[in-house]
Protein: NUDIX hydrolase domain-like protein
Amino acid sequence: MRFHVAPQSFGSSPYFHINRPLTRRSLLDIKNGLLSAECLDDQIPIETANGQASVLIPLANVMGVPGILLEVRGKTLRSHSGEVSFPGGRVDATDTSYLDAALRETHEELGIGAQNIEILGQIGPPEVNLRGNMVVYPFVGFVHAGSSHFDHIIGDVDDEPLPSCDLDAIRRSVSQTEVGAVFHLPFSALTSPARLRASLFRGNRPYWAIGVQDLVPNGKPNPALVEDLPKLQESHSPDDSEIGVGKYGSLEVWGLTGWYLYLLMKRLRMYR
Structure:
């Protein structure tokens, strides 16, 4: 039987308060915290677009609570249906950069326009997807409520809470074919021991998988994952590279999405 050492320490971040709304000051602190991330070459020749993808990790205040917007992929999608993910997808010929692709996909999937997203930075290095045919580039942004026109205040620093997003409005604007549900994962949930499951990414890198069943509207276990649960339990393997199943088949942030979330929390020093 194979064992591993799980991440041991988690708590508050020096860049923001996990129970208070994000502010201009905290966004600036997060930007500075992400500056040490491995630099990604954002400009891409169009002819090399195949085999490249990008995702956006969208931070947001919702009802005065800071956290991250996530989606459950539509059940009719051919790959990873019913799984939790960030908005994003394949870079196509219309995109001029990896970031362009992430913003376009976010608009197509969640109906959130680029004009409402303030890019805070990126995390790296990018990972290859499980099939081995796609390099996925992760970016971090903050979703401003409504038409915030934030460009002219990016240099300001203050401690006023930034307006909260209307999650119900976002849910009404999602792509019905690509997105099964949208939910908000509070930062405080990322440090709740009851939600954390020690796991391995690609079989050898420990991280936390996050239980989110109760945060998803009408959330139900993914039938495909439930079907594979006995096989996973019989193997007694903590490696969820192939089967991202939680306890009793419940929804989790796992796999590549979970790994990128873990890297972000490490970068923001919530996980140590």
